[in-house]
UniProtKB/TrEMBL annotation:
Taxonomy, superkingdom: Eukaryota
Membrane-protein topology: Multi-pass membrane protein
Stretches that traverse the bilayer: 12-31, 43-65, 77-95, 222-242, 262-283
Gene Ontology CC, one term: membrane
Keyword Nucleotide-binding applies: no
Compartments where located: Membrane
Keywords: Membrane, Transmembrane, Transmembrane helix
Record-given protein name: DUF300-domain-containing protein
Length: 369
């Protein structure tokens, strides 16, 4: 890599980290809504993390082999984590799961939407139904659970291919290539299914509550997240095509595919400054300042730092989502019987099956013991 590019990467990395740290500190100094701001800061950390890892790879501090083993998995796991974090952030700005299921959804003319293109084959989604909500949440979160498995599988394949290349043996190389190529293909298919499902469920949630989300201006936030992920993915595809046509020439101790990987990190590193500026604008601390929330108390910097660094909320949420015992109709009972009567027939029948009953001509409701 030319020294000029390495210098530009170092400047870009320092600038992006500085802008992101400023944005993060501004939230920590105005920490009045811990649930929302915890998610904001975790999203904001994406830029410094990518700036550091891409610079290390671009500058050659670590070899491409070790970068792929240690740094690339960090980027990929955090990408999946950010999708879940953004989904949780949307839930919190709407008031939390209970408010969505018991108030927000019921204020809509209809709580039911059909799956795009698959409406003939799949039942409609009722956002006021705790079980449908749980399906959406599981669909988003499964990507976080499965991503480490895909990464470990790819590491096994890469290490095996590296070992075969170093040994230069011809004994079982065909059989090794056969199983590694099959595993690689299976991991690729599984990864794309998991990522597509996660984004699809996020889109379903977005569509169900788009009107309610509009006042929070979610589009700039969504674009700031997705552009980094899309840039990472599509640039890698473009560089693979260029590599295929021999644009990158091998250097000492570097193969053509290694050169493509390094230039991908160079591009990402240089792009971190505009992404950091975008995050500064989209995830501003303005909604949480004293001017906006004069009656809200503020956590001190130390406790705010400790709050967002803790991951107990992720562990608890993953456990509750995986087992789903709390997502039943009794725990998310509508406040008034007239609201329940607006529910989709399928949802209303399911509530009745679990013990919901009406009285006074549908004006009141109660649960059987």
């Amino acid at each position: 890599v030319p020294k000029v590019l390495i210098k530009l990467c170092s400047i870009s990395s320092i600038a992006a980290i500085s802008i992101s740290l400023y944005t993060i500190c501004s939230h920590l100094l105005a920490y009045r809504k811990p649930q929302e701001q915890r998610m904001c800061i975790r999203i904001l950390l994406m830029v410094p993390l990518f700036a550091i890892t891409t610079y290390i790879t671009s500058s050659g501090i670590l070899s491409t082999f070790y970068s792929k083993i240690f740094l690339q998995p960090i980027q990929e796991i955090y990408e999946s984590f950010i999708i879940y974090t953004f989904f949780t952030y949307l839930i919190y700005i709407l008031g939390g799961e209970r408010k969505i299921l018991m108030e927000v959804a019921w204020k809509k003319d209809t709580t039911v939407i059909r799956h795009p293109m698959l409406g003939r084959f799949l039942p409609p989604i009722d956002i006021s139904d705790p079980k449908d909500f749980l399906l959406i949440k599981r669909g988003v979160l499964q990507y976080v659970w499965l991503k480490p498995i895909f990464i470990i599988g790819n590491l096994i394949v890469d290490l095996n291919e590296e070992e075969d290349g170093d040994s230069g043996s011809n004994g079982d190389i065909n059989s090794n290539n056969n199983w590694t190529s099959q595993l690689k293909f299976a991991l690729l298919v599984g990864y794309n299914i998991s990522a597509t499902l996660s984004l699809y469920e996020l889109a379903i949630f977005w569509k169900c509550l788009y009107k309610e989300l509009t006042k929070f201006k979610p589009w700039p936030k969504f674009l700031c997240i997705k552009l980094i992920i899309f840039a990472s993915y599509w640039q890698s595809i473009l560089l693979m095509v260029l590599q295929h046509f021999g644009v990158f020439k091998s250097h000492v101790n570097l193969k053509e595919e290694d050169m493509g990987y390094i230039y991908q990190n160079v591009l990402l590193c240089l792009e971190m400054v505009p992404f950091a500026i975008g995050h500064l604008v989209a995830f501003s601390n303005e909604p949480y300042t004293y001017k906006k929330l004069p009656e809200s108390s503020r956590l001190s910097f130390k406790y705010a730092l400790r709050d967002f660094l803790g991951f107990r909320d992720l562990i608890n949420d993953s456990y509750n989502t995986l087992f789903g015992t709390e997502y039943n109709y009794r725990n998310f009972d509508a406040a008034r019987a007239t609201l329940t009567s607006k529910a989709d027939k399928r949802t209303r029948d399911a509530r009745i099956t679990e013990g919901l009953r009406f009285s006074r001509n549908g004006k009141e409701q109660y649960w059987l013991d």
